[in-house]
Amino acid sequence: MISRTLFTDLLIMIFLVALQIFVLNRITLFGKYTPVLYPVFVMFYPFFRNKYQFLALSFLIGLAIDTFLHSGGINAFATTLIAYYRTLIFRSSTDTSTDFFSFQSLQWSQFLLFLFSSIFLHQLFVQYIEFFKFSRIFEILLNVLVTSVISFIFIIVYALIFKIKQKV
Amino acid sequence: MGFLLRLFSKNALFVFFIFLQIIALVLIFSKNAMQRSWLAGQTAAFNSWVSGYIDEGVSYLKLKQINEDLVAQNKALMTQLYGKEGVKNPVFRKVHDTLGGGQIYTFVDGEIVFNSINRRNNYFTINRGKRDGVFPQMGVMAPKGIAGIVINSTDSYALVQSVLSVNKIRINAALKNSGYFGTLTWRGDNSRVMHLADVPKYVSIKVGDTVVTDGKSAIFPKGVMIGTVAGYTVDNKTGFWDISVELSEKMGALSKVYVVKNLKKAEVQKISDTLQAVIKKEE
């Protein structure tokens, strides 16, 4: 495995954005649910690297998605949010209070909980900001849940393919 | 300042995060139609909320000026409304047969311009005077009953002694049913009640009986409404009835009156004078 640099980060970003926009966004399951994969960039970004760069890149990937989807800054907002609170989500997924973060040290159930919490939070923000209607609060919640579950499956597949758990 | 700098350097990541989120929010609210319209609506609501208070404050500060404007406008309107009334020509009534000798009374209508009811001797002023044929010793009637007697008149105004005068008014009044007459006076206590004296004790009276003028004084015609009997007792000093008469006209609310003009007054006066002369001679 080549070591991650800013350049490889950008390559991964381009790959993920292209995958999201040109492949996944053309898939609609059950008529209206679209899997969301690009937050894996945030979730699986190596720990203990420059946090500012991490935040900036998360913002950028969200902004890139927004640019293609013409959705303003919604995805950038949600992605930056889960990037900033990633360690918090990670900590609440495990029962340890150590500052040593690694997926290798995690059990599979904790790992899956972390993934699901992240994608659920991300979708929660994205969809509530996008619909922006309190009167449709339950309809949107259902939408968020279904989308999260579908995306969760895709994220697990991604993690298995690239052997994230073993590497990061 | 140092505190602020320390705060920023300690939480630099958080500040950076907030900075990115603000950019995202700005983009959200500037690029999306729904969010933009929501923001516009909220801004408008907030704007009107604040400027509502400001307007209220400004209008409070302007109150004095507005007050002055209103007073000026009121004054103009009042001048327009009331100022011309004095020059209105009077309307004479029942002037059909003044020369033939059959008609005794004519009437001049007028309006009260000043009135009082709460003194011992009350007066009111009407907007008719000598020019309209109003002279002293003429009776004044209101729509529902008698009101007073003219005591002085200028060219266009007349001063009227109200019936509510303790010593100055004695009106010949009669009970309509029985025809017995007496003298009506006011005792200065209640503006609705006058007292009828000199009615003999043997006359039967009921509460509610009508009291009218009896037409013997040359001031009021016969049968003008005065009021109704409200109560009666025997006056121990004189042995006559003391009858309380409730006036049918509310003297405090007078506005329109009619002045009674007796065309035969001079003649009546002349014959009365001869009576006086006879009495004098006999004495």
Topology diagram in text:
The complex is a heterodimer of chains A (168) and B (283).
Chain A: H1 6-23, H2 40-43, H3 51-69, H4 74-84, H5 86-93, H6 108-131, H7 137-161, H8 164-167
Chain B: H1 2-10, H2 12-31, H3 33-61, H4 63-82, E1 92-93, E2 105-115, E3 121-126, E4 139-142, E5 145-153, E6 158-165, E7 171-175, E8 181-185, E9 193-199, E10 210-213, E11 225-234, E12 241-247, E13 256-262, H5 265-282
Helix pairs in contact in B: 2-3
Task: Record keyword descriptors for this entry.
heterodimer, A: 168 residues, mainly alpha, B: 283 residues, alpha+beta, Thrombin, subunit H, six-stranded antiparallel barrel, 5 helices, 34% helix, elongated
Q: Give the proportion of residues in helices of chain A.
A: 55-70%
Count of DSSP H/I helices of chain A: 8
Report the average pLDDT across residues of chain A: 82
> Structural class of the helix and strand makeup of chain B?
alpha+beta
Span from first to last CA of chain B? 120 Å
User: What is the tally of helical segments of chain B?
Assistant: 5
Gross geometry of chain A: globular
CATH-derived architecture of the domain at 93-264 in chain B: Beta Barrel
Distance between the termini of chain A: 11 Å
* Name of the CATH homologous superfamily of the domain at 93-264 in chain B: Rod shape-determining protein MreC, domain 1
**Quaternary structure of the protein:** heterodimer
SSE pattern of chain A: HHHHHHHH
Strand content of chain B: 25-35%
Rg of Cα set of chain A:
15 Å
* Count of distinct strands of chain B: 13
